[in-house]
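Lab channel / #folding
Pinned by the channel admin:
"Please post every new chain as: sequence first, then the C-alpha cells as a reply. Keep commentary short and put observations after the output so the thread stays searchable."

First post following the new format, from NK:
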Amino acid sequence: MRRLSEDKMMKHFARGLAALSASAVIAGTALMDVPAQAKEYSLGTLKIDTPWTRATPGGAKMGGGYTTITNTGSEPDRLVSASTDASARVEIHEMGMTEGVMKMRELEGGLEIPPGETVSLEPGGFHVMFMGLNAPLKQGEAIEVTLQFEKAGEIAVMMPIAAVGAKTPDGKGGMDHSDHDHSGHDHNH
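Reply from TO:
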C-alpha cells in the first residue's frame, strides 16, 4: 500500500512540475514580447524619467528621443548636448507651428530646465534628434543615449524603442516624425 502511495505522489509531482514548466515557458514568451520598461535616472538635482524613442521606417535617417526632466534644485540647469552610437550626431530640437506649418529648429543654446519645474521632451515639442542613423531603430530594442547637462554633468540612459509613430512610450499610435518640414534648419553642420 505504501508503494502505491509513493507512485501516486510521484505522478502528481511530475504533473505539477510539467505544469509549472509550461507556465514558465508561457510567461517567458510573454515577457519577451513586452518592450523594455523605461526607468527613472537621477543626476544631481535632476530626475530623468521614462526616456524612450520610437522605431523608424527602413530608409529613415532621423529619429526622435523623448523623456521628462525634473529639476528638484534651486538653480536652473540646461540640457546642452546628447550623443549615441546609434547616429552620427544628436541635436536638441524644438517643434512648433509657423504660419500653419509644423517646423523644427535646433536649440543652439540647449534646453533650460528651470528650478522646481519639469520639462517634457515629447513628439511635436522639445526632443533630441538623432541625425544620420546608422541603422533603423527597431521596436522592442533600446539604444543608449548620453545626455550632457551644463551643471549636473552627463548621464547615460537607455531609451526603449516603441512602435513607429508612437505618441507615448507605451507604443500608442501617433504620427511619424520623418514627415515634418525640416527646411528651416540646416542639417549639414
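NK: The radius of gyration is 23 Å.
TO: also worth noting, The chain has a mean pLDDT of 79.
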